[in-house]
Design brief:
The structure holds 2 protein chains of 2 kinds. By secondary structure, chain A is an alpha+beta fold. Helix content of chain A is 52%, strand content 13%. In chain A, strand 3 and strand 4 (90-93) form a beta hairpin. In chain A, helix 1 crosses helix 3 (67-79) and helix 2 (56-63) packs across helix 3.
Amino acid sequence: MIYTLYKIKNYIQRGDEVDIIISNSSGKPIYEQITGQMKNLILNGTLRPGDALPSMRLLAKELRISVITTKRAYEDLERDGFITTVVGKGSFVREANVELVREERLRLVEGHLQAAVEVARQSGIEERELLDIVKLLYEEA
Amino acid sequence: MDAIKVRGLTKKYKSFTLDGVSFTIPSGTIVGFIGENGAGKTTTIKAMLGLIQKDEGSVELLGHCPEEADGAWKEGIGVVFDESYFPENVTPRDVEKILRRIYRSWDKEAYQKYLKRFAVPEGTRYKELSRGMKMKLSLAVALSHQAKLLILDEATSGLDPVVRSELLDLFLEFIQDEEHTIFLSSHITSDIEKVSDYILLIHQGRVLLFENKDVLIYQYGLVRCSKEQYEKLPPQHCRGHRESVFGYEVLVDNREALERDGGYVIDRISLEELLVFLVREEE
């Protein structure tokens, strides 16, 4: 596995060290790896509203990837309401939208559950059994 | 703004024709120009630069025609060929003395900075430099007259992986300025795959493909299937196919959608495999 690690520490005014880690051999598109990690950083409060993100060109240079890839990542983040881009100024973290975040997380949960349901169906595990597992796991956590 | 605009570029030789090549490159991008040996990459670049007489078509670089009488704008273009043409006995230090009289926008400090960074010895004669050093010298020159457009013809071929990797960093640095553009021909597709924004593929003097690199990597794919399955594939998304005794290999450009809706098994395709697939299908 080849990883490119990029610390965006220097680009936010305060706060902890922040890493973006890209794997070139992962099956996940690189722009999705960037958006996923940026979203996590925003959701867990490491990146706060108003924080400036590195420019697309700078991020591309540091991660050693194409500008077209970072551009796509920033466009997706903007579309999903996580950042806002001001021409000539750069990209900034937006005021967190609670509903939006919740929706995003729900979609994620749904995705994981869907995979579980598929496996269950293929293996003849019944609905009741599956629900029991989910219940048990939820209580345990 | 567009950095390069080529329309219907044609050049006829006895045994080879560059046949109506057209493409437009927006500034601020890195474009990988790929194709097998003899596909017409160097002919395209030479005709673009006006180094050979074109038979038909038009070229615009940085908004200017190469034929314009006043060529001052040409200082905005930095060119590196796979072989450079410095006299054998000059040293990199001499090169500086010569070029500062030629380029109005010559930047001595930048030149010396690049020589130092590339560890090119200033006092060694050109003929005694290694191939990698010669390439770095050419690149230092190309970067020292305030170029906005870098055109590199097979510049990374024949260099070791460490040097090639350094060059990729340099390219990414160069395009930190949104007005800067790189047009990079190579048959080493892995380098191009890393940093390019667009891929231009040429074969037998014709453009086979001009596409966003991420679309190529994430949307293109190879479907291996039976004849019946092949016939069910949406034809507008099939970009080529190959028949074998075991079935069909089909190049598609909508991998995500097919995987989601069609239940097809689709392999990702590297730039190199794509090149080979398209070229062989063409033949």
